[in-house]
Amino acid sequence: MIVTIDGPAGAGKSSVARSLAKRLGFRFLDTGSMYRAVVLTAVRRNVPLDDATQLADLAASIRIDVDDNSTRVDGVDVSKAIRTGEITQIIVHAADNVAVREILSKRQREIASGHDVVTEGRDQGTVVFPDADCKIFLTASPEERARRRQADMEAGGESIDFEEVLRRQNRRDEEDYNRPIGRLQKANDAVEVSTDGMTRDEVLDELERIVLQHK
Ligand code: DC
């Protein structure tokens, strides 16, 4: 069974999707980590981010492995290095690159093949797994999402003020909703869940209920 969870940055997708996968005994696939891994590797290897061909060649030449707890590039654990604000700021180079999207989408299907999976991203229910058994579109208001993002960043040791988080988030929303391919979009057959005012456990219970209805 494939369960897709798409939605904007900061809607709580990662943490909820991971817990949901655990509850269901499914694998968890965080696809944002793959876009992050591509730009991180480009920076580390001095590949110019604005050279679309070189970036796609790089994406095609590396092996990205993602499991429930880690992201690896050619066997090297990059789980922590991909989570910085600097990487988030340059992610658009990978996310807007059509060839990179094709390479990563193919890899996502390979990773999921033959498994029960909860997969999380922007285009999972629309582009990568259009035939998924259960599709969820997870949202929250911009302010609530920015508050959560700020708390996450602080927990990770990065201090940043709320207005700046909101500004960056608005820019990323704009990019995510408007890219020509793989843009953030609710699939026609997705169930929308707005998490404003809900605790994490309430969200988790709701998503589990939705998945069980689709089994
Ligand atoms: O979920 P995240 O913040 O780790 O995602 C990082 C970026 O990657 C996000 O701004 C857009 C891009 N992304 C994408 O374009 N398609 C996906 N399936 C997942 C992420």
Number of strands: 8
Strand content: 5-15%
Given helix and strand content, the structural type is alpha/beta
Low-confidence stretches: none
| Top-tier CATH class of the largest domain | Alpha Beta
The total count of helices amounts to 10
The SSE string, one letter per element, is EHEHHEEEHHHEHEHHEH
Radius of gyration: 16 Å
Strands across the major sheet, in which order? 2-6-1-7-8
Helical fraction equals 40-55%
**Largest sheet properties:** 5 strands, parallel
Total number of distinct structural domains: 2
CATH architecture of the largest domain: 3-Layer(aba) Sandwich
How far apart are the first and last residues' alpha carbons, in Å? Answer: 8 Å
Find the CATH superfamily of the largest domain.
P-loop containing nucleotide triphosphate hydrolases
The overall average pLDDT, rounded, is 95
Question: Which distinct ligands sit in these coordinates?
Answer: 2'-deoxycytidine-5'-monophosphate
Multimerization state: single chain
